[in-house]
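Hi V.,

Quick status before I head out on leave. The structure for the redesign project is tokenized and pasted below; the design run finished overnight.
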């Protein structure tokens, strides 16, 4: 390995260390209460070094959101490749959605905020490109499963993109709405049981009578 390749790998490893440290700090303190200095301390780096990789905590949080979107897309793609019926694949999507929520609910919530129309307009071209890429992989896999169910005569004959949008929008909407209810009313986290209820309704709605 040459000097250039070694330095490139070292830079990438340090970037990953910073992201891991940021996730830990954000999870413990929340986004608003966290500081770049605390993230630098967690990563065992100087604040100056941290700013060589990320210009502020907003950028750090955005890249964590891209990471969780990639993780979500990868897990959905795995379901697509499994030898399961279309109905079982839809059921597995529920498991993936809940697993990703458990992985880091705060970052997932930020991801859904990033995907709102107004926020997307303020993102850099590079960040927007990555969000488009992984969103297309996740959404495309759901479309493929829905289309397969339509072609097999199992699901209702509606546009597969529209049906996939219903499933994806239900996920995002439930995570954002139920979490906001929890924060406002100091209630327990009902996101997961609500997702399970939504999927029962969606599975019934997808099937032909």
């Amino acid at each position: 390995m040459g000097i250039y390749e070694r330095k490139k790998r070292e830079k990438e490893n340090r970037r990953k260390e910073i992201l891991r440290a940021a996730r830990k700090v954000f999870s413990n303190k929340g986004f608003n209460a966290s500081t770049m200095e605390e993230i630098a301390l967690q990563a065992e780096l100087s604040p100056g070094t941290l700013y060589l990789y990320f210009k502020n905590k907003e950028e750090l949080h955005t890249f964590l959101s891209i990471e969780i979107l990639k993780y979500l897309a990868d897990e959905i793609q795995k379901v697509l490749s499994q030898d399961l019926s279309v109905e079982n694949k839809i059921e597995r999507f529920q498991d993936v959605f809940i697993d990703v929520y458990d992985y880091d609910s705060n970052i997932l919530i930020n991801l859904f905020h990033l995907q709102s129309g107004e926020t997307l307009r303020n993102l850099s071209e590079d960040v927007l490109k990555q969000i488009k890429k992984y969103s297309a992989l996740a959404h495309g896999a759901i479309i493929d499963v829905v289309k397969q169910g339509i072609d097999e005569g199992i699901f209702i004959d509606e546009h597969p993109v529209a049906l996939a949008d219903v499933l994806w929008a239900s996920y995002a909407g439930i995570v954002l709405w139920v979490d906001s209810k929890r924060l406002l009313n100091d209630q327990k986290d009902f996101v997961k049981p609500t997702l399970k209820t939504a999927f029962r309704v969606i599975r019934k709605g997808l099937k032909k009578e």
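Above is the designed sequence. The CA atoms of residues 75 and 96 lie 7 Å apart.

G. will cover questions while I'm gone.

Best,
W.
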